[in-house]
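User:
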Amino acid sequence: MVQMYLALMEDVFAREEVLQLKARVKDGGLVVITSHRSPDGDAIGSSLALQHLLQGMGVASKVVMPDAYAKFLHWMPGHSGVVFHDTEPDRANELVSKAEVLFCLDYNAPSRAGGLSEAVEAASARSESLVVMVDHHQEPDSFADVTVSDPTSGSTCELIYRLMGAWGESSLLTSDMAACLYCGLITDTGSFRFASVQPSSHHMAAALLQTGMDHSRIHSLVYDACRLDQVQLTAYALSQKLQVFPKHRSAIISLSQEELQRYNAQKGDTEGLVNRALAIEGINFAAFIKEDVDRVKLSLRSRGTFSVRDVAAAHFNGGGHHNAAGGACEGESLDSVVSRMVELIPSWSNDLQYDD
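Assistant: Predicted structure:
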């Protein structure tokens, strides 16, 4: 495989490979867009935004996801056409296997694609398929034919917006595409409060608003659509399951499957819990640990200089960004993972003794 690595720089799209990619997607072959397991606002937003862009260029495409995403994201234009591997595995695998151009958005290793991982790996090994990775996480695997990687970007939606400009297709920006892009922009930048926000992030937001997109409605759909069970689960998690370690400036929240079922938890109900722990005065590191059906999942957050990406990679089979990362432990119990986290926290204590 010939690796065309688009390096980490501001003009990451100002290369001949990007122009060649535009020509390739317009050749008329099947274009398939994928993202990572448990897709979030940026994963869905960037995927559907790219589909809108390709549609405007006269290129048909399909969005294929490893599994379902939270209902508060179902409003996005294009949602009804998404194919999910967990409910239609044969169809999803067939689409990926027949793709002449396969986009991998918001993930930088096939293993992050859940049930689609084998199909993505197979596509990367086929000479007939052009695999394109567009992502903003650190240390991408070398599995794609074209790797568009910029970890300085706050979201993959920002990369899709820049791709549109690099292709000279900014006139195709519609309110529907803008809505998808805005969703990923606000969710992955914490509504513009994370350190990853650049001046270009706000310039992009201004351009999206100029399409007539209703940003207030989008923010409400994403952040203000809480079911009563979800509110009660949050109250329970904060009042009963929050562990705070003031000496080590750390906090943990954990929830078992039984506890999640007790409050009829749905996908997305625990979004933001880790940030509630990090919001505690004096806390520089927070972890949310959740028991899933086949594994234990972790969401890690930090403020300042402490790298949760390093923690996730070294101890919890994960990765991500400097201040926001995740991991998953298969074959371990919730108690085991929580106990391991509690044992590790004191070893990081000296690195967490700072005021942001």
